[in-house]
Known about the structure:
By secondary structure, the protein is mainly alpha-helical. It contains seven helices and no strands. 76% of the residues lie in helices and 0% in strands.
Amino acid sequence: MATLLEAGLLNHFNSFFIFLFVIIAVYAILGRIKLFGENSALNFTIAIIFGVLFASSSYASKIFQYATPWIVFLFMVMIFLELASRLMGNNPEKSVIHNPASIAIVLVLIGVIFMIAAGQVSKEKTEKLEKSGVLEPGENKILSFPEKVGETLRQPAILGLIVVMLVATFAIMLLSHESK
């Protein structure tokens, strides 16, 4: 029996999900940083404008399609770290989620995920233009640089180094936290 996900029935709602995600994210960010003060109507209006712009752009839709699984994975790791922290006896006030440093790390990682997704979408569009004959295939120094950076970052040694640095960052953060 086919489910909704297997049949691809939810693909028709991609733009709507992107619209909702962007509205929620932009509204939360504007409410948190108080860029326009306490005016929630203005924040919501700006969030709706961003939501419409992102939902109507096929480029942004593709970026969200690539980035969403990795962001979900990142949040699952954060939930696991929070659970592990609580199981070890930490107070909820001293948890990983309430630490500004860990929130900053997560936001940086989300930014990196979106940049990698944008690079992947740009690479696909470039390959499509090469196949259609608009661009000539060959050695293009500008287009090959992101590809080489991606190949470098996907090396097992580099990925291992990133994981070790993340573990060390969280260890230092949790061990150096002063108990009151």
